[in-house]
């Protein structure tokens, strides 16, 4: 009598690795990877030990912007809309309170900054402030400085912003330095 041996059925898997490799390459090529958003800022250098690096800022040269957990924007304890931030920052920085700035176009309000070089923007936010609001306010502050610098370039060099050289750009940044202090405030 013959005995029947059952052979297990096999699947030819030789080309499975090729198919998996092709699928992997297909998905790598067709997938878009979103870039992370962030803020391009240069951090200050460390303070050398034994020296005092803190500057005392006059109250009138400090513009306080705060964001609360309810996603509201306060400038000097008044609620403002996001669209108003740029104009308020521009008016504050370009105020010319001491009337010694020959390129400033401000209204010389006594409660506002003395000079663009002395103007400091203090941005504080609650721990529960949404990241998008924080970035949007930072963008509005940056736009204000961009506009002020662009106006200065036209006034001083009679050029467009994208046509200045490195030395001219250094002069512009010295005329309108971007001084922003950001801090997170934890409230219970």
UniProtKB/TrEMBL annotation:
UniProt entry keywords in alphabetical sequence: Cell membrane, Membrane, Protein transport, Transmembrane, Transmembrane helix, Transport
InterPro entries noted in UniProt: ExbD
Presence of the UniProt keyword Acyltransferase in the record: no
A Pfam family the protein falls into: ExbD
Domain of life the protein comes from: Bacteria
Compartments where located: Cell membrane
GO BP of this protein: protein transport
Gene Ontology annotations for the cellular component aspect, listed alphabetically: plasma membrane
Membrane topology: Single-pass membrane protein; Single-pass type II membrane protein
Molecular function per GO: transmembrane transporter activity
Signal peptide as annotated in the record: none
Family of the protein in this entry: Belongs to the ExbD/TolR family.
Protein name according to UniProt: Biopolymer transporter ExbD
Organism: Winogradskyella flava
């Amino acid at each position: 009598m013959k005995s029947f041996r059952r052979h297990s059925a096999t699947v030819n898997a030789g080309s499975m690795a090729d198919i998996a490799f092709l699928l992997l390459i297909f998905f790598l090529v067709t997938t878009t990877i979103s870039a992370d958003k962030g803020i391009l800022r240069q951090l200050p250098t460390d303070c050398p030990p034994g020296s005092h690096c803190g500057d005392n800022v006059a109250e009138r040269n400090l513009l306080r912007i705060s964001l609360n957990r309810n996603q509201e924007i306060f400038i000097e304890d008044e609620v403002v809309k996001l669209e108003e931030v740029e104009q308020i920052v521009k008016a504050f920085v370009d105020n010319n309170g001491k009337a010694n700035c020959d390129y400033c176009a401000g209204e010389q309000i006594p409660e506002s900054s003395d000079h663009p070089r002395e103007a400091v923007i203090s941005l504080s936010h609650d721990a529960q402030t949404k990241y998008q609001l924080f970035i949007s306010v930072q963008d509005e502050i940056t736009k204000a400085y961009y506009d002020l610098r662009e106006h200065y370039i036209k006034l001083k060099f009679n050029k467009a912003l994208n046509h200045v050289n490195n030395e001219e750009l250094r002069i512009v940044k010295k005329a309108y330095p971007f001084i922003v202090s950001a801090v997170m405030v934890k409230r219970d």
